[in-house]
Specification:
Layout: H1 2-21, E1 32-34, E2 40-42, E3 51-55, H2 61-68, H3 71-81, E4 85-90, H4 102-111, E5 118-121, H5 126-131, E6 135-136, E7 139-142, E8 148-152, H6 171-180, E9 195-196
Domain Thioredoxin: 22-177
Protein name: Redoxin domain-containing protein
InterPro entries: AhpC/TSA, PRX-like1, Thioredoxin-like_sf, Thioredoxin_domain
Length: 200
Amino acid sequence: MLKRSFLLTALLAAVAGAQAQVQVGKPAPALQVKDAQGETVSLADFKGKTVVLEWVNPGCPFVRKHYGAQNMQGTQKAALAQGAVWLSISSTAPSSGDYKKPAELSAWLQGQGATPSALLMDDEGTAGKAWGAKTTPHMYIVNPAGVLVYAGAIDSIPSANPADIPKATNFVTQALGELKAGQPISKPATTPYGCSVKYS
């Protein structure tokens, strides 16, 4: 009984520790994932730069909303124009019907006119779970000092209707503008919306 209690306590502590890792205003969790070409990409590679992370799944209607209306691409282009790095991450399990192989997902992004700095294939879901990514899309911004300064939704209207995009506040664009201007992030954390990440 004592041993079981100890194991339960250790497990709860480990879960709490993982959750505590992902806090806005704290150093961002480590990230090391192979890209679509099989090369290892690490968040540490981009020290001194702003990094935007986007969890993506083309099978999700919410992702299609933002890509179909060119909203995600516009947000991405604005970020890259500011000198930021954009990492698109797939944590979709290979067993899921939504899974796309690296070449397929790269081709889809290219077909949409997207130009991420890297496409990361987190097939085992290790990075997604470590970061607490819940939905596609789920957005994060890490500042040049390596601190997580934004986590949550891409915008303020949680729907799959492209007509809502012009009426919504784009939280990512807003946060990047404030970060560039040296201002506090007015909405550092929001509730992400979309399809649940299809973890293995």
